[in-house]
Amino acid sequence: MRRLLLALPFALLPLAAAHAVDEHDHDHDHEHGSLGAHEHGVGRLNAALDGQTLELELESPAMNLVGFEHAATSDADKAKVAAARAQLEKPLALFSLPAAAGCKVVSQELESPLFGDKPDADDHDEDEADKDGHEHHHDHSEIHAHYQFSCATPGELNTLNLTNVFKTFPATQKIQVQLISATGQQGSEVTAKSAELKF
């Protein structure tokens, strides 16, 4: 199953290229091996349904989920990070799956420098010094959430509703979705006003 999600970025590169340009593009595409650029307000969701297994991978700039991207040092910032993490730990509340599908969480994994995870080896520009010796802090923290569900009746899994993602994290304006199911691959963009996907 993991192969399906890993194949998504390569299979859908033409779609990614269409979304890669934005006014916030600080040439940081190389930092994250994901679709599109790091763009505030925009999240990405990869979804793959294989038999009874549904996998969801949500990637978002931390700005969308906690309101900042720097390390949480103040009590207020730490509380925001803890609250966002608590929400992300309830995927059945975030992703409204049809009850008739009988989906249960099998595993979940949350990663972010804000959660105390070490940054990727590719994120080597965190505290680069320029030729004049001045340090530049590139705070482009992302939050990655990976969920695996087992669905007793996958035939009933005909929609995926992201309304609660937008309600829980209102700074998220749109989510670029790549979906693989028995009917093939599709890419779409959802917003709070149009937050339902069809499998």
Shape: globular
> How many runs of DSSP E, i.e. beta strands?
10
Oligomer: single chain
Whole-angstrom Rg: 17 Å
Unreliable residue runs = 6-35, 120-137
Order of helices and strands: HHEEHHHEEEEEHEEE
> Helix count, per DSSP?
6
Structural class: alpha+beta
Organism: Pseudomonas atacamensis
Signal peptide: 1-20
Biased composition (Basic and acidic residues): 131-141
Region (Disordered): 114-141
In short:
By secondary structure, this protein is α+β, with helices and mostly antiparallel strands. The chain has helices at 2-11, 13-19, 62-66, 75-88, 91-94, 163-168, and strands spanning 42-50, 53-61, 103-111, 127-129, 135-137, 142-151, 159-161, 174-181, 184-191, 196-198.
Structure keywords:
199 residues, two-stranded antiparallel ribbon, single chain, globular, alpha+beta
What would your notes on this structure say?
A hairpin with a 2-residue loop joins β8 (174-181) and β9. By secondary structure, this protein is an alpha+beta fold. The protein has one domain (2-13, 39-115, 140-198). The chain contains 6 helices and 10 strands; from the N terminus they run ααββαααβββββαβββ. It has helices at residues 2-11, 13-19, 62-66, 75-88, 91-94, 163-168, and strands at 42-50, 53-61, 103-111, 127-129, 135-137, 142-151, 159-161, 174-181, 184-191, 196-198. The longest helix has 14 residues, at 75-88. A 6-stranded mixed β-sheet has the order 3-6-2-1-8-9. Strands 4-5 form a two-stranded antiparallel sheet. It has a two-stranded antiparallel ribbon with strand order 7-10. Residues 1-20 form the signal peptide. It holds the Pfam family ZrgA.
